[in-house]
Amino acid sequence: MKKKIGILTFYPMHGGGIFQYIQSMVDALVADRSNTYIIFADMNDTRFDGYGLEVRKLNPCNRSGVNQVIIFAQLLLGLRWSFFLRNDEKQIYADIDLFMSPATSVYPHLFLRKPFVFTLHDMQEKYYPHAFTWIERFKRELRNRALTKSANAVICESNYVKQDIMHFLGTDSNKIAVIQSPPPSFLLSYEVDQKNFCSVKRKYSLPERYVFYPAQCWFHKNHIKLVDAFNIIVNETDEDVTLILSGSQQDNYPKLVAKIQELGIGHRVKHLGYIDYEDIPYLYKMAQMLVMPTLFESVSIPIYEAFALGVPVCCSNVVALPEQVGDAALIFDPNDPADMANKMLQLLRDASLASELAERGRQRVSSFDHKGYARKILDVINK
User: Fold this and answer.
1) 63 vs 21, 82, 220, CA distance in Å?
2) Rounded-to-integer distance, Cα 226 and Cα 334, Å
3) What is the per-residue pLDDT for 162?
4) Which residues form the Glycosyl transferase family domain (predicted)?
5) What is the pTM of this model?
6) Is residue 293 reached through a cis peptide bond, with omega within 30 degrees of 0 on the bond before it?
7) 242 with 118, same domain?
């Protein structure tokens, strides 16, 4: 008998790599006929409307301040009561046999007392506690413990994160599945429209040569050290290149702007803010490289996007990134701006190296397919 599996896609489009992760999971499972999949999405989310799956849309009640306090109190007391859910919410979830939560969230599955599988993306608060307030750290601890204790299975994307889950949360290794997600399926066989290059370039006023970094302005994304590294390129070389940044302008953004002004390189650094998703492939394709200076990343979706689109990559040597890129990228110490600048300059000045790395990246993701990804997820579901 087919199981009804609810995929929870409540996550903001501007929320970084998890947004793409959710898309990849749906891309993988949409072809499976052994189960019935039902998408749960926000009222204004239309991205899955053409997938041929049932999409149930609602405004979740967990976002109100009162309900946030109720959820926090329940996590603190180890409770799983669903009284705060509206009747229409309880009804819309009533027939689901198993929930898949691609984001690390407790809503609604923890309180409905139904089987669920969730993804724990990282535990960076254990390594960079100063980047989080004490209440944020406390909430993450309560949430992660409640989820790992109650989940039927936990998915993560690297062995590094699996070890963290076992070490910090005491979770049995048999409960944790390491499954790397490929880029969204449309990128793996993306065909560019040549006329769009000019329109995208004009839309964002892009220069001829630029290094691209798409990331939210969170502390661990390490924009400040990247700007320090780029300052070396601007002031100590004759390279005519610009640093293009994108992502929501929040959290560390004021510090980033202040740093750019302090160094006097505002004419060579441009922050585009949020980019329309359909334009992203063209920003990658026109870039000299993707740079990924992050201090903490379980798996980087932008790296896989760059690999899929044939763009060379230069990235940090932290956490699981060396495991992710293999020999398909130049890696650097993200705390050493000089090392970062040196690696970027290698790619800017050596066209054959850039081409070779781009090809290795293509080959690395060519072995990824959503059928194989789906099989691994189904193994977890069936187990």
Assistant:
1) 22, 15, 26
2) 8
3) 95
4) 208-364
5) 0.84
6) no
7) no
Q: 334 is written with which tokens?
A: 């993200």
Residue tagged 């409770």 (tokens): 79
Residues 68 and 51 both lie in one domain: yes
Residue 326, domain extent: 185-366
* CATH, residue 50: 3.40.50.2000
Pull the structure tokens for residue 342. Answer: 């040196």
Chain centroid offset of residue 283 CA? 18
Percent of the chain, pLDDT > 70? 99
Q: Annotate 182-234 with DSSP letters as a single string.
A: PPPHHHHT----HHHHHHHHHHTT--SSEEEEE----GGG-HHHHHHHHHHHH
Say how far apart CA 192 and CA 82 lie, in whole Å: 47
For residues 41 and 87, state if they share a domain: yes
pLDDT given for residue 24 in this prediction? 87
pLDDT single digits (tens) 68-104: 999 999 999 999 999 999 999 999 999 999 999 999 9
Please check whether residues 176 and 191 belong to one and the same domain.
Answer: no
Is a pLDDT exceeding 70 seen at residue 16? no
- Residue 13: its pLDDT value, please? 66
Tokens of 115: 């089987």
CA distance between the termini of the chain: 15
Q: 178 and 232: one domain?
A: no
Among 227, 192, 201, 166, CA closest to 287:
201
Token look-up 């190296």 returns 353
More confident site: 134 or 274: 134
Residue 192 shares a structural domain with residue 314: yes
Alpha-carbon distance 340 to 337, whole Å? Answer: 5
Domain count, the chain: 2
Tens-digit pLDDT profile for residues 210-232? 999 999 898 999 999 999 999 99
- State both tokens at 321: 């990134």
- Given a cut of 90, whether residue 298 has pLDDT beyond it is no
